[in-house]
Amino acid sequence: MKKLMLIGGGDTGRGNTEYTTKEIDEEIVKMTDKVNPNFLFIGLASSHSDSYYDTMKKIYKDLGCTPVYLKKSNLVNNPDIVKQKIQDADIIYICGGDTVKLLDHVKEYNLEELLLEAYNKGTVIAGMSAGAILLSNKGFSDSLIARGESENYEFIKGLNFININFCPHYNTDPKKKKDLEEYLSKNNEEVYSLENNTALKIIDGEISIIKSDNNSKVYKVSYKDKLIEEEIK
To answer: Which of 66, 132, 204, 224 has the greatest count of CB atoms below 10 A from its CB?
Structure first.
């Protein structure tokens, strides 16, 4: 079975933030069908990957997992260790951050083939925000804004493990919805748009919705004379 969890956003409890993705993390562990799954954290999108891992390590250890960290030093110096960590993982969690940076690193260190092999053999692949965009056909991202290369949210091409268009953090910035409407008015496409604390659970292409907050929503967004938001429950 092929297993993905694409997370639209939320807080993992780092710093002074509230932990808001508990039910999603619990479901990720359940998807392995194992009592003590191996959890591999990939933090290549984040500029604070060490502290990010420390938080995720505690969360997934409390959920019965054995956590492991794929460090950038592994990628640079130990490709055999990288391969082994990915092959041993029951869960691969790709964190949020800079989508462009994440894609660049995945390509630079030849991770795409290893991730695809893991996905095809049934490893649960979870992506948060930028990580979810990586796994999608393409995703609506603010990375080019943060880099000073654009004034608008723009789609960035992912690895297409699942052929959907993905928009994370749909409820966090009114400009995002405006930019998406502008794009869709010129393109006949649909976009899965997720508010924080929601996720798409995808088993062999079949999509269901997981929420850590029942007030948060997931939409399939398109355009026909106006923006159409079809809520998915």
So the answer is: 132
Sheet holding 136-141, edge to edge: 154-157, 136-141, 162-167, 191-194, 218-223, 227-232
Tokens, residue 209: 């919705």
Using a CB cutoff of 8 Å and minimum separation of 24, what contacts does 147-156 make? Answer: 147/98, 147/100, 152/179, 152/182, 153/179, 153/180, 154/179, 155/183, 156/99, 156/100, 156/103
pLDDT at residue 118 is higher than 90: yes
* Residue 109, Cβ density class (10 Å: 0-12 exposed, 13-18 middle, ≥19 buried): middle
Task: Please name each of the domains of the chain with its CATH number.
Answer: 3-232 (3.40.50.880)
pTM higher than 0.85, yes or no?
yes
For 155-187, what is each residue's pLDDT tens digit? 999 999 999 999 999 999 999 999 999 999 999
119-141 pLDDT, tens per residue? Answer: 999 999 999 999 999 999 999 99
